[in-house]
Design a protein that fits this description.
The protein is an all-alpha fold. The chain has nine helices and no strands.
Length: 197
């Protein structure tokens, strides 16, 4: 996985895989899910990844599920196990806009979304913004009070377009509780940001 993620941006590198794995492990333990399947899905969830500016970006999870299937077959996972893991990978992404059908899929989605918020989420959003050469904020309306957020132009808009909405989109009680804590951190950051500009 380290080699497979070496070309990814720093928001989707091997460190991201490790954090999602740890999040998934914690949630799976508390929610009493199949740990083997959850952790396999977490390790492989970004096996195919395209930058946000790439037209294929929205199909990353579908391509990733196909690649994961090939890998899992080599390691003799059963047909049923492969189905659960690959569906979790296919459906975890925010851009697909679906809620996974299985508990394992819901946990992967939650684990990945938790890495998008909190202190790590703040670091990741500005890392992606820098890679995509976006300005930090719209100087006329930094906090999207009177306009629709445009995350393709301003990094701060991504908070309002997606990140601050993730708490309500968590599937499990465990993830909802952790998301609430991480959103508080992000709101505190935004208050400080407002004071400084």
């Amino acid at each position: 996985m380290i080699k497979r993620t070496a070309k990814n941006d720093s928001a989707h590198d091997f460190g991201h895989i490790v954090r999602v794995y740890k999040n998934a492990q914690t949630i799976a333990r508390k929610e009493k899910a199949n740990m083997k399947l959850v952790l396999a899905a977490a390790l492989l969830h970004d096996i195919v990844w395209y930058p946000k500016s790439d037209p294929r970006s929205k199909t990353s999870s579908v391509s990733g599920a196909k690649e994961a299937k090939r890998i899992l077959k080599r390691y003799r996972y059963s047909v049923d196990e492969i189905k659960i893991i690959t569906e979790a990978i296919r459906d975890h992404s925010f851009s697909r806009g679906v809620i996974p059908q299985t508990l394992e899929g819901k946990i992967l989605q939650d684990a990945d979304r938790l890495d998008a918020i909190g202190a790590i989420g703040i670091a990741r959003v500005f890392s992606v913004g820098g890679t995509e050469k976006r300005s930090f904020y719209n100087s006329e309306d930094p906090f999207c009070k009177f306009r629709v957020p445009d995350e393709t132009k301003w990094t701060l808009d991504h908070f309002y377009k997606k990140l601050l909405l993730l708490e309500k989109k968590m599937n499990t009680k465990t993830a909802k509780n952790e998301a609430r804590r991480r959103i508080r951190i992000m709101n505190q950051f935004l208050r400080e940001f407002k004071r400084e500009i």
